[in-house]
Give the backbone structure.
Amino acid sequence: MQARVTLPEKQYKGYIFDLDGTLVDSMPTHYRAWRSALKHYGVPSEAFRWDEFVSHGGMSAPDIVRELNGRYGMDMDAEEVGSYKRDCYTRLIHDGQLPCIRETADLVRSLVARGIPCAIGTGSLMPGPLETLSAAGMQDLFSIIVTPADVPNGKPAPDIFLRCAELMGVAPADCVVFEDAEPGMRAARAAGMDLVVVGPCPRVDD
């Protein structure tokens, strides 16, 4: 199987990981949750298919709903639909274990064993990140998890990653971010951090 990511040779003082699609292969499950939620709220079936979904990776569910409202002329309640989607996701992951992305998961375990600071900077709101980590068997690896609820602005703004660096006690210039989605990549660059891109999971068609 082809590697999803090439690990950097440079050693950093702090490592920041997006969660979905970067540490855990959860994007197909998130997609199925979105399809269920949007169908429930009467969104046209042609809206938010795989490519559009992937382009919004790293954004919070309410922010995605707000974008969909503007794009498709709808007036959905962003918080309500976002909460419903998260409930759909929780039900789906309770049906089975989520697979880790081997390269990044192994790297995290190595870094934690050596005492090197690590953090998660995710677009998912709690308790989603904790549930995802638990379903992937990684719940004991991270003490620092920053979500959009913890900062003024979510991705693609740099706030999440800058807050991760602050909590790790590491200067942004000494951090590297692992990301798989364009909003998160833009956030990492805006934070002045090095970036490692994790390759996408296989396309999901339905």
About this structure: The mean pLDDT is 93. The longest helix spans residues 78-93. The chain is about 40% helix and 10% strand.
